[in-house]
Amino acid sequence: MKKVILTMLAVAAMSATMQAKTVKTEIPVNGKCNEMCKPRIEKAAKAVPGVLSATWNLKAQKLTLVYDNTKTDAKKVQKAVSASGHDSGNIKAPQATYNKLPGCCKYRK
Fold first, then answer.
1. pTM, rounded to two decimals
2. Contact, 91 vs 101, CB < 8 A?
């Protein structure tokens, strides 16, 4: 009986550490408008498996993320956002992709 209880406790402890953890964080993302930049940035972030929500704030130039940390991390989201043409933190969007952004979305000087 003692072995059964100890085994059950060990299994419960292992499964508790293996459960997904939902993380909320903010990452910097450059953009200029809510009409075109916001949907593009949020779509790129939400396309990353494990991202539960993504909301970009123009004034703050921040993307608020909620994600499952067993499936992704903030760095993967930053890479996806930069691939859509928007610099994210220290990850710069490729120049060719940035050049394809509509004029109202260009933030580099």
1. 0.82
2. no
Q: Quick one: what percent of the chain has pLDDT higher than 70?
A: 82
How far from chain centre, in Å, is Cα 58? 16
Which one, of 79, 69, 71, lies nearest residue 29 by Cα?
Answer: 79
The CA distance from 87 to 105, in Å, is 12
Closest-CA residue to 40 (of 89, 75, 87) = 87
Residue 25 has a pLDDT of: 98
Q: Phi then psi for 51, rounded to 5 degrees? A: -80, 125
The pLDDT value recorded for residue 97 is 98
Check whether 81 has a pLDDT greater than 60. Answer: yes
State how beta strands 62-68 and 22-28 pair.
antiparallel
Q: Is 70 in contact with 63 (CB distance < 8 Å)?
A: no
State the pLDDT at residue 19: 67
User: What stretches of 11-83 adopt beta strand conformation (E)?
Assistant: 22-28, 51-57, 62-68
